[in-house]
Amino acid sequence: MGMWIVHIPAIEHRTGVTHAVLGWLLLFLGGGAFAGMQLCGPLTDRFGSHRVVPAGGLLCSAALVLPGLAQGPWALAAALLVLGFGNGCLDVGMNTHAVHVESRYGRPVMSAFHAVFSVGGVLAALVGARTLSWGWSAPVTLSCIAGLGVAVTLVTTTGLLRPRPDGPAPDGGPANQSLAEDTNGHGDAEVAPGGKSGKRRTPSRIWALAVLALALMLCEGVANDWSALHLRDVLDAPAATAALAYGAFATAMTVGRFATDRVVARIGPVRLVRYGTALAAAGLVATALSPWIPLALAGWTVFGIGLSGCIPQFFSAAGHADAGASGANVSRVAGLGYLGVLAGPAVIGPLTQVIPLNLTFFLPVALCVLAACTAGVVRAR
Q: Where, by residue number, does the polypeptide cross the bilayer (predicted)?
């Protein structure tokens, strides 16, 4: 995905689309990802993440070639739809598999997986910059990376967890009887005689986790899309300095995620989300009100540190809520969360027509405060 982002300007030039048209075409990428997440959630529960992850990895890798080959806007739209679908399938499959790894590993590890995902974005920027400097075309570079992705998928498939014979689901651990006792009679799940689940309804707690994921990933989207513009347009920073805003945020997110698992093991996920979102809100308030560039950069850094470990806790809580429906639950949280990333520019952009850009940041501040007040939803049942 990082290699696609790096080559957006080249692909935009190749297909002859304008910035405005590209903005609409990106909706195909988001729509495909959302569809892939919703489809692969139930498939993961039925067939196991050890089968869905390789399928998603192969599809996502192969689809990376398509945007580079597109010659016009409609071809690019179809390519982005397929790439987004593959990414959505892989996203749900690997996060669900991470839940099972975490369950058997015996301590929190989810945030480390998300940190390595961030490292992949950094590597994509470095590799893309180098290949572009060599004059490689987008089709050539994307084909090479696609081949690498296919090879990595095939090699790592043998290392994925296989089903436990005593589990209720392809990937799941032992039957979660406490969940059945907790939800039976409350409208959240239907439990058939003998302990086997019949048709499941999504518990309200999963929807609450999904809404919080949407809120905090919207906050991430605001930092991704508006941090550099904030320094440039509000504080009159040079372009090179303005770029440091997103760099500070992204670096803080990556470092914070590597440290989160140890923190969660000590204080638990509830306090991590509560204190993390409160810290993020404080950092963004400092950024919004700062008249100085160094303080604004510090604020974006604190904002990234605060948010860094929160989203993985929502994925982990959703996946562990029901061993037999972990894929479906993760797909709901991931799906709404992904919509939050897409909503960031859509919400902030119109607000800038009414109030200054820095004041629009009080919307994500309010969302962080909301998450801090409702952090108890990640507590294990």
A: 20-40, 108-128, 134-155, 206-223, 243-260, 272-293, 299-321, 333-355, 361-378
